[in-house]
Amino acid sequence: MRYPAADDAARLFELASNPAVTRWFSWGPYTEVSQAEAWIAAQPAKRDAGEIMDFLVVDPDAGPVGVTGLTEVSKRDGRATVGSWIGEPYWGSGANAEAKALIAALAFRRLGAERLTAWANTRNGRSQRALERVGFRREGVLRAWHRHGDEMHDVVVFALVRSVWERSPLAQVPVTVEGTPPPSFVLG
Ligand SMILES: CC(C)(COP(=O)(O)OP(=O)(O)OC[C@H]1O[C@@H](n2cnc3c(N)ncnc32)[C@H](O)[C@@H]1OP(=O)(O)O)[C@@H](O)C(=O)NCCC(=O)NCCS
Prior knowledge:
CATH topology: Aminopeptidase
CATH class: Alpha Beta
Shape: globular
Strand content: 25-35%
Bound molecules: coenzyme A
Structural class: alpha+beta
Largest sheet: 6 strands, mixed
Number of domains: 1
Number of helices: 6
Radius of gyration: 16 Å
CATH superfamily: Gcn5-related N-acetyltransferase (GNAT)
CATH architecture: 3-Layer(aba) Sandwich
Order of helices and strands: HHHEEEHEHEEH
């Protein structure tokens, strides 16, 4: 997992120009590579502002396969929301579970989080199942939680709290974190 760089744009465009990937998002699918370039260019300012810290999920052979990151940080309560997408050729490959192990280790061990929240559209069965598979617990439904254009969408809210993560297989995955986190994302 690493921060995106300018020369990742073509690959991100390739993966996120697939409507199956962005179906449940407020953005996309990409129609021009400039949209991926703009997303990459915006990342440093968003990290500095404490808005979002997104990483590319990188396969040693295939290169970038998706994106995962932390947003909606509450320093006071020690929580953040995790969001992810994986390119369709890598669905079911284990990349998503590995990415969740990495982001959870970053959040709980390095940043001092107490809770990770995740949302899945009530109609996005695959995402709900994928979250439960890696140890997130379903908490309920938030109605009219996300706006996509003119439509409001209901989401299922999931959580992974520190004590559950510590006992989960995710915590057994060896993870090395390098670098200094942006101060707004330090929660502990
Ligand atoms: C959500 C996402 C990250 C999950 O990664 P993944 O590699 O597809 O997930 P996994 O294969 O590990 O797990 C998916 C699970 O859902 C199951 N599944 C597949 N389609 C399903 C459906 N329509 N309804 C319910 N479960 C479904 C799979 O069988 C699997 O469960 P199993 O391992 O018990 O068999 C990936 O599919 C993705 O990027 N989707 C598009 C973007 C997105 O929806 N992001 C999440 C936004 S909240």
